[in-house]
Write a structure and sequence with these properties.
By secondary structure, this protein is an alpha/beta fold. Helices cover 43% and strands 15% of the residues. α2 links the parallel β2 and β3. The protein is globular, with a radius of gyration of 18 Å.
């Protein structure tokens, strides 16, 4: 299988200078890579998450490279903690220009074995908490400042993924939310975009086992998994002046997986 070349940012180091970005789940995976890329292109970043060590590690790396990062320990499923994240960010930076709704979580299970509790756990974080953060940031900062960018993280293939009915449903909902908000909030100068990521080689992917990861990799026309940095660079580009006319759509970053489909037989009776 082909492997990606070492990642070099395609963006100028000042492409996002002066912007302030909040990334949920910013200590690991795509969120961490996005925080690093936004900081490397000049933005000040706020990262939040439930685990202190990944947040501290990411902030240390950003600041060691000369960037600015504010880590905030928070569970975005709790409304008062969402408010605290915003207040902390505003106290430090005065406003937010970019919100990246990265936080989420899922587990693999046949649809018939997903309990109501399991369904609600996934939806609460990937959809309900995402909406809580989005509304709070929009009303508490972006609308009053006359604009901003909101990014949602979706899934590819877009047509559903076996074993992840709950997560696929939630990510499809945020993709639709992105387009709906773009229509409503354009009058406030707010852009809203969904970035649908395919199978990305994050540390969390290993929890599904080597067989599953190899099977997913075989469904990618480019013949390899994506890197968190490849998704992050698309998000960072959206925040630049070059992305300023992009809103209300879903950008697929998946090596061609959605175009090809799942490339495997459906489950049989």
């Amino acid at each position: 299988m082909p492997t990606p070349s070492p990642f070099i940012s395609p963006l100028r180091s000042d492409a996002n200078a002066g912007r302030v970005a909040l990334i949920t789940g910013g200590g690991t995976g795509i969120g961490r890579a996005t925080a690093l890329e936004l900081a490397a292109t000049g933005a000040s970043v706020v990262i939040c998450g439930r685990r202190e060590e990944p947040l501290t590690s990411t902030a240390r790396e950003i600041e060691g490279a000369g960037g600015t990062c504010l880590p905030v320990l928070a569970d975005i499923r709790e409304g008062d903690q969402v408010e605290r994240v915003l207040t902390t960010a505003l106290d430090r930076f005065g406003g937010l220009d970019v919100l990246v709704n990265n936080a989420g979580g899922q587990f693999e299970a046949p649809a018939e074995e997903i309990s109501d509790k399991g369904w609600r756990a996934v939806e609460r974080l990937a959809l309900d908490a995402t909406w809580s953060v989005t509304r709070t940031v929009a009303t508490g900062s972006m609308i009053g400042r006359g604009g901003g960018l909101i990014v949602f993280i979706g899934f590819s293939p877009l047509r559903g993924i076996p074993g992840f009915a709950h997560a696929s449903a939630a990510r499809a909902a945020v993709a639709n939310l992105a387009s709906g908000l773009a229509l409503e909030w354009s009058r406030h100068g707010i852009r809203s975009v969904c970035v649908a990521a395919g199978t990305i080689a994050t540390p969390a992917l290993s929890q599904y086992g080597e067989d599953a990861v190899e099977r997913w990799q075989r469904t990618v026309p480019l013949g390899r998994l994506g890197s968190p940095e490849e998704v992050a660079s698309v998000i960072a580009f959206l925040a630049t002046a070059g992305g300023a006319y992009i809103t209300g759509t879903t950008l697929v970053v998946d090596g061609g997986a959605d175009a090809w489909g799942l490339a495997e037989e459906p489950p049989r009776v």
